[in-house]
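To the wet lab folks,

You asked to see what we're planning to order before we commit. Fair enough. Below is the target structure as tokens, and below that is the sequence we designed to fit it. If anything looks off to you, flag it before the synthesis order goes out.
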């Protein structure tokens, strides 16, 4: 994409279609409690990687994984939404297998007075 331009999705179900058909590239892709959590990572992560500029970064945050099978079920009663709950180690493996360099995933502790931390991930396109 042009310098200074950005694409924002309020329709996360369309992110794979957009990334499949766009000719643009991105220096940074952020997913803050967004598409990376709700879209099959084996489909989405390679699509993002193909659109990242050399040296570009993917940064992701969402809730840490919960016990149970992967992917997990509905979130907050949203019956039609599936989320992918993987351990930080599994996310790092998925990022590496999708062609990212230096993947890092970790759970940071919650703020004081809260029970749930945040899973943070970053990886680069080198």
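Sequence we intend to order:
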């Amino acid at each position: 994409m042009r310098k200074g331009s950005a694409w924002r999705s309020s329709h996360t179900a369309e992110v794979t279609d957009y990334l499949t058909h766009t000719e643009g590239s991105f220096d940074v892709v952020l997913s803050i409690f967004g598409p990376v959590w709700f879209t099959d990572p084996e489909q989405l992560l390679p699509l993002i990687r193909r659109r990242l500029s050399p040296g570009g970064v993917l940064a992701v945050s969402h809730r840490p994984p919960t016990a149970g099978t992967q992917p997990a079920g509905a979130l907050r009663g949203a019956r039609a939404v599936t989320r992918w709950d993987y351990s930080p180690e599994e996310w790092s493996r998925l990022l590496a297998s999708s062609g990212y360099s230096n993947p890092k995933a970790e759970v940071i502790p919650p703020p004081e007075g809260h029970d749930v931390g945040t899973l943070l991930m970053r990886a680069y396109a080198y």
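Structural context that might help your review: Residues 23 and 51 are 8 Å apart (CA to CA). The beta strands are 26-32, 52-62, 101-108, 118-125.

Thanks,
Computational group
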